[in-house]
Amino acid sequence: MNNENLLFYNEYERFYEMAERSSVFKNFCRDAYGEDFSQDGFSDIKQINRIIDLIPKGNDVHILDVGCGNGKMLGYLQKRTDVYIHGFDYSENAINTAKKLFPANADFKQGIIGEIDYPAEQFDVITSMDTIYFAPDMGEFIQQAIRWLKKDGVVFICYQEGDVMPKTEGPRTTVLAKALQENKIPYEVEDITKETYEMLKKKRETALVYQKSFEEEGLKEWFDLLMIQTDCAVQSFDLFSKEMARYIYIIRKN
Question: In angstroms, rounded to a whole number, what is the distance separating the alpha carbons of residues 50 and 154?
Fold first, then answer.
């Protein structure tokens, strides 16, 4: 794995190093998103709690998070549902932290989409929170993920348009939707653009509250990044929705 050639690799190595040591960033995440998952984007507690409704009850339930970061989202789901958690991420710093934070009933690996593999029919739920963009071929990766699912398993994908991925007309015209359609993979989709707009406004307001604390910890560059990430929420929702969109895609294995 040639890490240096991976999208945003060096940036994420630095990000997860910062997220592990910074107390102000942890407090910011709790206030902005409702829980500290070391978020570098858009996943708040409302989105994560949707996953809980998809997790079956039982004693042998396994969840895989694609691009799991430091595992905090998986740790939250494990605490809520007592499942066995699995995750992979290309960031060495993130995986080292995940292994340290969640040693029980857990399996964390360093790896990337398109190269890592798991046994067929191992997982009940597979999640991808803004990580499907890293797939060399989205349709091919979804087919692989479906192979990893048990019967009646579910793939849960949060997908953003207007930054990494181009803005299209709607949830059925995204790059991901077209890949699913071309591969004849049925899916459900929910538009959470308005919810995301409100979340980004709160994220910006919270960052401003913590501005001085970020600066005191020597993290002004991360505060500045939060301002850049939320510039789009300063405008009206009508203007925002012309440039940005966010969707949840659900794929069920029959």
Answer: 12
* Whether the Cβ atoms of residue 101 and residue 110 lie closer than 8 Å to each other: no
Cβ–Cβ under 8 Å, residues 122 and 128? no
Q: What is the pTM of this model?
A: 0.94
Is residue 5 pLDDT above 70, yes or no? no
Instruction: List beta partners, residue 237.
Output: none
- At 245, which helix (H) or strand (E)? strand 245-252
Tell me the pLDDT tens digit for each residue of 117-145: 999 999 999 999 999 998 999 999 999 99
What is the signed CA dihedral for 173, 133, 126, 51, rounded to 10 degrees?
-70
Residue ranges of domains in the chain, CATH in brackets? 3-252 (3.40.50.150)
- The answer to whether residues 204 and 233 touch, using CB atoms and an 8 Å cutoff, is yes
Is the dihedral angle over the CA atoms 231, 235, 241, 242 positive or is it negative? negative
State how far the Cα of 116 lies from the Cα of 87, in Å rounded to an integer: 11
Give pLDDT tens digits for 51-89.
999 999 988 999 999 999 999 999 999 999 999 999 999
Cβ(98)–Cβ(128) below 8 Å = no
Nearest-angstrom CA–CA distance, 214 and 216: 5
- In 92-228, which ranges are E strands? 106-110, 123-129, 149-161, 188-191
Buried b (16+ CB within 10 A) or exposed e, 66-102: bbbbbbbbbbbbbeebebbbbbbbbbebbbbbbbeeb
* pLDDT (mean) for 207-220: 97
Partners of 89 in the β-ladder: 110
